[in-house]
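Dig into my protein:

:::
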Amino acid sequence: MNALRVAFVTETYPPEVNGVATTTQQFVEGLRGRGHDVALIRPRQAADAPTAGPRAPQPPGALRQHLLPGLAIPRYPQLRMGLPAVGRLLRLWQHQRPDVVHVATEGPLGWSALRAARRLGLPVSADFRTNFSAYSAHYGIGWLQHPITAYLRGFHNACGCTLVPTEALRQQLELQGFERLHVVPRGVDTQRFAPAHRSDALRATWGAGPDDLVLGCVGRLAAEKNLGVALQAYEQIRRLQPRARLVLVGDGPQQAALQAACPTAVMTGVQRGAALAAHYASFDLFLFPSQTETFGNATLEALASGLPIVAFQHAAAGQLLRHGHDGLLAPLDDSPRFVGLAMQAAGDAALRHRLAAQARRTATPLGWDSVVQGFEARLRQVAGQVQQPQQQPTAAAVAAGHPAHASTSPCHTPPL
């Protein structure tokens, strides 16, 4: 089949550390590995060389990138968001017209990409990756939930297709008026994340011996991750197993508060690559108390690492795990049940061993190759839609959830 020219627009990308950056890189590199011409459009990061930019020479085979201005995100200075760039994108795509524009994030740069693409009549697909409306309740701006949902609905309904990671999220968004939704799940590198990377030497740095129980959490140390529930579980478990350890991998605005609330917790900071894989594999029990994920890549990484998991019945955990088979699932908003399940797993080594063995089996078929293939098929289908240059939707129309001239072409291909 013919290669696609894909303009891939995202406000976050490695070396930034978050689930969106990680999965975006997997899709970009997966498309390139399948022979497609991908141009990555993202904000300039602090690590980027000053001379890098749209006109800078790039070595043969390197990912073609267009770096645009950005600003640090409040409370997350290590992350950046793009600035409005409609004019620059119009000039870029008039000169190098892509077959399809894929928008991974709905911030100012993503909004600019949607406007520019619609003005040029370019097909657009998008990801729904972050549960902004759920996050708002954790930052004292719950009153913005409805306007945020209206904005997102207008944004995504102006696209030819919106990709979501789980069937449950597809159904939830459909009830809120989102259109043309299709499930493309996430994958995991089952070679990188594997039980074989367990390290007694690493565990020793945490103060844990070979037979001591280590509880692990991986992700941003932020209010929306609900880590207070993990601390409650740890404190209950320590009453029965005083040598148990809790290891929190990541950083974020709640780091100091969490350390103050639980001085015995081990804070490792952000880990990447082989070091991250070793941290996962060196845990004995994985706690994932978040209830705001659209997916939750950490669930997949923990599964591949052969860990018993305690989570809420939500997002990736709710889709992939079977309670008592490869994990333990608490109903949403039932924190006492979550704590009780963590205590049950902590006190039953045979249960942990059985869940761990099945967790690895569950993860084995979830490699990235098949996921990227499904993503590619959706892009081909959207790229094949007949587009006409249109007046871009107004900000007022999007805020109302009814962008002017919104595309009504459905995605007709069968589910992948």
Summary: The CA atoms of residues 168 and 315 lie 7 Å apart. The domain at 195-363 is CATH 3.40.50.2000 (Rossmann fold). The two ends are 18 Å apart (CA to CA).
